[in-house]
Specification:
The protein has 89 residues and is mainly α. The chain is 79% helix and 0% strand. It contains 3 helices and no strands. It is a single-pass membrane protein.
Length: 89
């Protein structure tokens, strides 16, 4: 549910009554700065969460069955000293 025009006018009137007409610009500026800082913090948290997700995805992809098979084949090559014919490039 969004706020309508009459609700905004009522809120603005309450602010003027509480803080006085001379303080309204200062209060509005403070609210704007706080909103900007909140958005910056939110964006930073989202970016860090995305980076953490990518790190986890990278770690799980490294453990994929194909890579495990390739690692096993490389280990066998080291032990026997020769390559197997069924190895994928």
């Amino acid at each position: 549910m969004g706020m309508g025009g009459s609700e905004w006018i009522l809120i603005l009137g309450a602010i003027i009554l509480l803080f006085g007409a001379s303080k309204v610009p200062e209060v509005a500026r403070s609210i704007g700065q706080a909103s900007g800082e909140f958005k910056k913090a939110k964006n930073m948290a989202e970016r860090e969460a995305q980076e953490a997700k990518q790190d986890v995805m990278g770690e799980t992809q490294e453990k994929s069955p194909e890579k495990q098979q390739k690692t096993k084949m490389m280990d066998q090559e080291e032990k026997t000293g020769k390559k197997e014919d069924n190895q994928e490039n």
